[in-house]
TrEMBL record:
SUPFAM superfamilies: Dehydroquinate synthase-like (SSF56796). This is 3-dehydroquinate synthase. Keywords: Amino-acid biosynthesis, Aromatic amino acid biosynthesis, Cobalt, Cytoplasm, Lyase, Metal-binding, NAD, Nucleotide-binding, Zinc. NAD(+) binds at residues 110-114, 134-135, 147, 156. Its cofactor is NAD(+); Co(2+); Zn(2+). Belongs to the sugar phosphate cyclases superfamily. Dehydroquinate synthase family. Zn(2+) binds at residues 189, 252, 268.
Length: 364
């Protein structure tokens, strides 16, 4: 494949942070040493257990280029997003003598890139890092935009930092080894991008939901690139979530509460799916969203096999958790809802009866 088949999407550059590129294509891992650059002497490749071979191959490539490269293996999925695992990574960096010009590479799903970015943000108060996302979700969302973090017992992503990567390499070939459950989970964030900003995404998924569930589908690259463009545009204008960036949290207020309630055993995308149906119902019941667009949420999410409901008896616990959502201000709960297709807005302090009624619509 020639370089012309690589799509390059720029992020940042106008809001006070350094611009970087998201590369999308195939056989792109050869780009990594160029991104690491000549100033680095050491590189740490943080990878999950499931990608031990990929992690070692990248480490070896970097070692062949003359870097002192180490591989740091972390647990799969959310088990990596803990203070203990971050401390394990800091220890590896310390023992390798990592300095401020050295570089971290996070290769894996969103859990790994969130952790790797957080380790990069905190080591020596910030070193460069490069994201090599290997799931749909990480390519279209987690690896782009510089939100890094870990979970605590009290909730999802409660500790973290805004620390953009120096570059993102989305090698679509990585998706071939992803299980269908994880592949479909990523579609939730793609569909989110469709509802908040780019309805063509919804048209493409609806045209053939079965094809959307596999990396071999005819629209895979377009769906991924469109979603990255949505994210890139938003975070380029509002890196630190002063306002606009909150729209990327559509469906996440309830989703994060479900993830915590499930002790992080549910995939993020599955929780976001239920959370978006809830947000659509909230919008509808608050008199903001038309019935057709609200119903479209259920239809498109169900068509790709994402869940629409959660346990009805859990509402009191979920409500309690939602109170520490990052969008809350004091005692004021805030949700992203839609005023219409691709018209996201903030709903502040909804009537508790409306909240309960919206939850009734997703209760199993
Ligand atoms: N920082 C952000 O802006 C942002 C945005 C969205 C989501 N997130 C976070 O991303 C996380 C979810 O990410 P995810 O859905 O990628 O899940 P994940 O990182 O948990 O990965 C899912 C599983 O797939 C495995 N895996 C990864 N790539 C693989 C591959 N190519 N082949 C086979 N197995 C592979 C992983 O080891 C893991 O077991 C959540 O923690 C969520 O909070 C962050
Ligand atoms: O990038 C953002 O901003 C998002 O909200 C994207 C979300 O999909 C993502 O799950 C993010 O990690 C949520 O962030 P949080 O600040 O609500 O923890
Ligand atoms: Zn998300």
């Amino acid at each position: 494949m020639t370089d012309q088949s690589v799509t390059r999407i720029q992020v940042g550059g106008s809001a006070g942070h350094d611009p970087y590129e998201v590369l999308v294509g195939r056989q792109l891992l050869g780009e990594l040493p160029t991104l690491v650059g000549p100033r680095a002497r050491r590189v740490a490749v943080i990878h999950p257990e499931a990608l031990a071979d990929t992690g070692e191959a990248l480490r070896q490539d970097l070692a062949d280029q003359g870097y002192e490269a180490i591989a740091v293996q972390v647990p799969n999925a959310e088990e990596a997003k803990t203070a203990e695992v971050a401390a394990y990574c800091w220890k590896a960096l310390g023992q390798t003598g990592f300095t401020r010009t050295d570089v971290i590479v996070g290769v894996g799903g969103g859990a790994t890139t969130d952790l790797a970015g957080f380790v990069a943000a905190t080591w020596l108060r910030g070193v460069r890092w490069i994201a090599v996302p290997t799931t749909v979700l990480a390519m279209v969302d987690a690896a782009v935009g510089g939100k890094t973090g870990i979970n605590t017992a009290e909730g999802k992503n409660l500790v973290g930092a805004f620390h953009p990567p120096a570059g993102v390499i989305c090698d679509l070939a990585a998706l071939d080894s992803l299980g269908v459950h994880d592949y479909v989970s990523g579609l939730a964030e793609i569909i989110k991008a469709g509802f908040i900003a780019d309805p063509v995404i919804l048209d493409l998924v609806e045209a053939d939901p079965g094809a959307a569930r596999t990396p071999a589908g005819p629209h895979t690259a377009e769906l991924i690139e469109r979603s990255i463009r949505v994210k890139a545009e938003v975070v380029s204008g509002d890196l630190k979530e002063a306002g606009l960036r909150e729209i990327l949290n559509y469906g996440h207020t309830l989703a994060h509460a479900i993830e915590k309630n499930e002790r992080y055993k549910w995939r993020h995308g599955a929780a976001v799916s239920v959370g978006m149906v809830f947000a659509a119902e909230l919008g509808r019941l608050a008199g903001r969203l038309d019935d057709e667009t609200a119903d479209r949420h259920r239809a498109v999410l169900e068509s790709v096999g994402l869940p629409l409901t959660y346990r009805g008896d859990q509402w009191p616990k979920l409500l309690q958790t939602m109170k520490v959502d990052k969008k809350s201000r004091g005692d004021l709960l805030r949700f992203i809802v839609l005023d219409g297709l691709a018209k996201p807005t903030v709903l502040e302090g909804p009537d508790p009866a409306v909240l309960l009624a919206a939850y009734g619509e997703v209760s199993a």
